[in-house]
Amino acid sequence: MQHQRVLILDFGGQYNQLIARRVRELNVYCDLVPSEMSLEQIKDYDPIGIIFTGGPNSVYEENSPRIDGGIFSLGIPVLGICYGCQLMAHMLGGTVKSATTSEYGKAEVEYFHSPVTVGMPDRAVCWMSHTDRIVKLPEGFKMLARSENCPYAAFGNEEKKLYGVQFHPEVNHTFNGTLILKNFLYNVCGAVGDWTMSNFVANQIAALKEKTGDKKVLCAMSGGVDSAVAATLVHRAVGDNLTCVFVDHGLLRKYEADEVMQVFKDGLGMNLIKADDGAIFLSRLKGVTDPETKRKIIGEQFIRSFEKQAKAIGKVDFLVQGTIYPDVIESGKGKSATIKSHHNVGGLPSVVDFKEIVEPLRDLFKDEVRKVGFELGLPKSVVMRQPFPGPGLAIRIMGEVTEGKLETLRDSDYILRTEIAKAGLDGEIWQYFTVITNSKTVGVQGDFRTYENVVAIRAVTSVDAMTADWARIPYDVLENISTRIVNEVKHVNRIVYDITSKPPSTIEWE
Ligand code: XMP
Q1: Annotated catalytic, 150?
Q2: Residue 170 is among the residues annotated as catalytic for this protein
Q3: Residue 506 Cα, ligand 1 centroid: separation in angstroms?
Q4: Is-same-fold flag (5-188; 403-497)?
Q5: Where are the domains of the chain?
Q6: What's the pLDDT tens digit per position in 216-274?
């Protein structure tokens, strides 16, 4: 069943993915596409509405991104945000001028009645981020909101269903900004709210059944949210025709490997093969201290371990990948400098004999993947799992990885996780884990001098892991964690808390 779709044309602003997530949260499907999409392609896409995002340019710059003016005559509602609204005003005959000062941050706006502002208070705070501003509206447009610095903070032409907002309704700082998006979608575009995760699950299962028939399907299960949800969805559709391979590299957290087997093999009855290769990984890591070398060894051995299992299974028709929408949006964009060589299962296709890749989650944002996980009945521990690096605990042990250090790390990390959950902080902190530093310090325990490891706690808040801030965990919670670790975990006599943000640090220590 086809659902209604909104098209978001990307002009390069920093909040663009957030706009798409907000629209999806309002139960309307949308795609974020480059602004260069042609008018023909736009018509073929058949959107119920179009949103222009913000962007860093000025409409007066020679090479600033444009759009075919025919878009305004298609009869499809358009909402321009920030640069998007300036572009609309400029192209339709209004005047945009460079202001002497930028307006950045919170501003108070006064709203006037219209289909997009209905339900907004008379005055409220919104989030502005612009230098240019509109000083004259195109003919037929009405002012719908204004602020001290911005005479046309929102405007529209009700008959033509064209609207613009200078501020960012998608960010939380804009009071009730979601209502403006909702009004546009439901009051102007005629959305019916047919994008729900239960619809998605039903549609995907039907589509997967039709696509794969009674053919053989293979999936690499890492324990992470994406591969777990992708595998479960495919399992619902094809049952025993799906085989999952879980490479246990021995670098997972306490109880994690057992949990994967329990949930997916015992609980869901999946055909799940576990490659118990911890000893091979550890022996290959012997004596290795350089972070990049560790990552390369683990990434390469992961492929070898998977390959061995795949060969034993033989030819399959389909390979499942847990690709999600942000990966799809990001791909094709220029590569930035490699800070760390990331390891994930992206290298697998070349070692498996298969006909086609299936990516059941490629239209979903992470929060939607989680909703699907719950919809499929997966436990919270799987669905809300923190991001976990492919090379696992190896990059949280500075210096050589040994069985002994792994044990210390697992035990201390388990205490940290338990205490964070007990304090009710697990939903607020993006990632939290312990690190075995490569240093020993003197301590005193009982009446004895000790000379043992320093364990560091790393806990950060973030929205996308690109930047992060250290989490302000209350002192009493930190105290509990510290006391428990030094008392209960062998070979640790000191705990330190990492108070650096990213940048200049990274989230992981290696
Ligand atoms: P950094 O340490 O670069 O980490 O700030 C950013 C995010 O990426 C995770 N991470 C990885 N994820 N394979 C992955 O799939 C990797 O090799 C890898 N290294 C780091 C890290 O946990 C954080 O969420």
Answers
A1: no
A2: yes
A3: 9
A4: no
A5: 5-188, 197-383, 403-497
A6: 999 999 889 999 999 999 999 999 999 999 999 999 999 999 999 999 999 999 999 99
